[in-house]
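Q: Predict the assembly, please.
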Amino acid sequence: MGLRLRLILVLMIPPILVVGVYGLIRVRTGRGELLADTERTVILVAKAIQAGVERGLREPRDADLQGMLAEVVKDQKQVDRIRIFDRSLDALFVSNRLPGADAVPAEVLRRVAETGQPEGFSSGTGKQRLFSYVLPIRESGGGVVGTMEVAHLVSPIDERVRSATWDIVVRLSLLVISMTVLTGLVLQREVLRPLSRLMEGITHLGRGESATPLPVDRHDELGRVAEAFNTMAAQLQTARQDLLRETEHTLDLEQQLRHSATLAVAGRLASGVAHEIGTPLNIISGRAEFILQNLPAGDTRRDELNVIVGQIDRITAMIRSLLDTVRPVKPEIRSVVLKDLIDRLLLLLEYAARRHGVTLEVSIPSDLPAVRADRNQLQQVLINILMNAFEAARPTGRVQLSARRALRGTRAGVEIAVQDSGPGIPAAIQTRVFEPFFSTKPPGEGTGLGLPICRDILKGLGGEISLQSEPGVGATFVVWLAEDGACEA
Amino acid sequence: MVSKDSPPSVLVIDDDPDMRQVLSDFLQRSGYRVVEAANGQEGIFAAESEPIDAVILDKEMPGMNGLDVLSFFRHRCPRLPVIFITAFGGRDDEDESRRRGAWLYIEKPFRVATVVEAVQSVLEKAAP
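A: Predicted assembly structure:
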């Protein structure tokens, strides 16, 4: 049974019972009072008529008496028939006939004649129910010479009672219908609709979706429920996001662990191999150098030997970079003020920019918060990115180094952007620039390890590096590092 | 300083004969007397049995390695300049060798001329 039906029944039954029973009782008592009133009136009128009849008998003018009685019946509402009987119960006068109620009440008449006491009684059925009052008619000597019956039809009273009952039934029905409709409407508007919104919200939440906040536009219990629901939904949302973040963090940690485990293995392998290679390489270059020293200047073989030495240098540089990537580094993370770091690098950077023919514009606000980083590593990252930018922007371009506060999720931090006016990086290879050994520089110039090392360093520092580039417009590398909470900017 | 009548002696301790040969050729050409040792024990023996002015010591050797030899020299002859070399050693090796008293640290592969210059510079520093 739904809430609506139950509420309607609970609300309807008591008033219906009360109003119905009360109405019926009222009708019943009303009927009794009405009957008693009518009977009293009938008796009074009957007594007056009796007096008139007795006077008429003493001064006999029969014709007048009959006329008077006929007139009484006609005029008096309470009198519907008058009959006069002699002692042998023969009718002396009958004002009119009432079909179905014309039987002679012999017993009553006889008793009244004998005792001289008037008596009332009811007779007849249906629409011809009668109240009759029988009185003795006395002669001047006091002896009873006959009886008189004054009758009144009481059926109209029943008629009125019936219509009053109907009236009650109709009013009650109207009440029930209107209250049902009203209750239904109010219930729908005030309870069921907010409830169904709440249900919808709960279903959404249950499915793991974010629930639309319920309108809190009322100050009653449902308003408070909506408010509580909204609070709960918000808390759930926060909890879910926290969980998600934590999961991501855990996954990230796991990945980092796996990555560092791989790196550690790779590092041991690489160190071993590199060590084995180091000596032979040195012997080759040493021998070449030795022969070079023995050859006179201008000897064409010198060029070939120089190639050998140069190529050994190249292999050496490559292996050193490789080892830098795979060797486990223990960053010394502390509070680093970016402006100080860059101010110290500025001479070197400006020199490098000039050498490439590039204009370097630096704008580091002095009120930037300090970041959490390893000074040397951060320096390595910045130099790496800036050198790439100089190379991209040469021979006459511009490189902008800027920094600003920036949030990553809820973490406060600093964003360092290096923007060059170079040719930009094609979309197809933008994701590959952070891959080891991927290089766009001419063979021999880049190891393809600079940016992967930067990315690994930043990962170790809890930071990020990203690239935005529009071919033809230039490239921007953005480094983000977390703000150092313990240190004032 | 290098004098003509008694050229400074440089002890080269490296297990690789070709490497020793390369260093030896360059040093001799630059006027040094070269003593070669193929492992740590030989190196220590050579340093104890004849006058040595500088040592070029490789890290990776079978048996007693370069770091052990370095510790030995530090105790027995603390004024003897030692140039420590290792193939792609990295910062850890450099720090460790300096902790044990190496005067200079050079990574293989190096330009041989660099080592000759290094020998010259440590000898100048060690000269009374």
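The first strand of chain B starts at residue 9 and ends at 13. The CA atoms of residues 44 and 69 of chain B lie 7 Å apart.
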